Amino acid sequence: MDRTIASGAVDSGSIPLGDVAERRACMCMRAVFLWDDMGLFIAIIMFLAAFLLLRSEWEKVQLKTDHYEVRTDKLPEGVSKVRLVFVSDLHDYMPARHTPEMITKAIDLVKPDAVILGGDMITVSKSERVPRPETKTALSVISSIAGKYPVFYGEGNHETRLMEKNPEGYASYVSEIFSMGVRYLRDTGAEIPGTGVQVYGVNLSDDFYGRFPGIEKKYEMPERYIEGAIGEADRKNFNVFLIHIPLYLEEAEKAGADLVLSGHYHGGTVRLPDGRGLMTPQYQFFKKECSGEFTYGKAKMIVGRGLGTHSIKIRINDLPQIAVVDITDEGTSKVQN
Ligand SMILES: [Fe+2]
C-alpha cells in the first residue's frame, strides 16, 4: 500500500510535524520535571547533611550522665554501695566552650567513691614513626579530678601505642600521672580504699584491636591470658576489670571479673535506634558492643561512649558520656525494693 498520501491526509507510518513538536515539548517538560525532582532530591540531601552536621557539632559539646547499677553479695560488711564514675576516650579533646572544671563539676554532682579512667585519654598518631602524644587536655582534666577523688587509670590502645613507639614520651606521661596520685594500672590491680572493691587494668597489645580497618574478626585471646597478665583475682572480692576494647567479657568472667568497664568504640559514632553503632572509629559497622550493658554468666560489662572524638569527629544520637556505676549490696537493694 502506498504510504504517501495527499497533503492533509495522515500516514500511519510517518509523524506529522505538529506531533514532533508536541513530543519534543513533552520531553522538555519531562526533563524539567526530572531536573526539578533531582534538584529537590539534592536539596533534601543537602538539608539533611547540614542538619546532621549541626546536630553533631551540638552533641559534641554536651555532657550526659548515665546511671547503671550492678548488684552483688560480695561487698564487705558495712558497705552497702560503692559508686564509680567511669570515663574513657577523652582523646585529649575539649570543645572550645568546655573546661576541665565542667567535667569535674559533673562528677561532683554524683559524689563518687572513685573515678575510673578507661583509657585513650590521650591521642597518639599511628602514622608517625616516633609519635608526639597529645596529652595537654588529658593532663589538665585528670589533675582536676585527681585532687578530689581516688582515680584509677587503665590503658587504652593509644597509651599502649605510645609505650611501644615512644617509650620516653610514655615514661614522661605516666610519671606526670603518678605525680597526681593516680593509680595507673598496667596489668596490675588496686583496691578502692575502704570498699573492698578491686580494680584491675588489663593491658592489651595492638593485636587485640585488629590491624585492618573494617575487618570484624576478633583476635583470639590465648587461654588464661588475663590471669597471666594480672595474676589470679580473688573471687571472694568484687573485681572490676578495665579492658579497653569491649570484646573480652567472656574471657574476663572466666578470670574472675564481676564487672568489666570498656570503651574504645565511642558509641559507634552514630547510634542507631536499636543501640548498635553505625560505624566505629576503626570502620567497623553495626557493632552491638558500642555502648550500654552486657552480661555473660555472672559478669556484667558496661561500655562507655567516651568523652571526646578522634578520627571520625562525628557524634549523632551519641552524646559524650559520664557513666555512674553503683555497685550495690544485694541485701540492701532487696530491702529498698
Ligand atoms: Fe581506643
What is shown here, in short?
This protein folds into two domains: 15-60; 64-336, Metallo-dependent phosphatases (Purple Acid Phosphatase, chain A, domain 2, 4-Layer Sandwich).
Explain what this protein looks like in three dimensions.
This protein has helices spanning 17-60, 100-110, 136-146, 157-165, 167-179, 225-230, 249-254, 330-336; strands at residues 64-72, 81-87, 114-117, 151-154, 183-185, 188-191, 197-201, 238-242, 259-262, 277-279, 285-287, 292-296, 299-303, 321-329. A six-stranded mixed sheet has the order 1-14-2-3-4-5. The protein is an alpha/beta fold and 337 residues long. The protein folds into two domains: 15-60; 64-336, Metallo-dependent phosphatases (Purple Acid Phosphatase, chain A, domain 2). The chain is built from eight helices and 14 strands. The chain binds fe (ii) ion.
Write the layout of secondary structure elements.
Elements: H1 17-60, E1 64-72, E2 81-87, H2 100-110, E3 114-117, H3 136-146, E4 151-154, H4 157-165, H5 167-179, E5 183-185, E6 188-191, E7 197-201, H6 225-230, E8 238-242, H7 249-254, E9 259-262, E10 277-279, E11 285-287, E12 292-296, E13 299-303, E14 321-329, H8 330-336
Parallel strand pairs: 1-14, 2-3, 3-4, 4-5, 7-8, 8-9, 9-13
Antiparallel strand pairs: 2-14, 6-7, 10-11, 12-13
Helix pairs in contact: 2-3, 4-5
The structure holds fe (ii) ion.
Fe (ii) ion (FE2) binds at residues 120, 156-157, 244, 264.
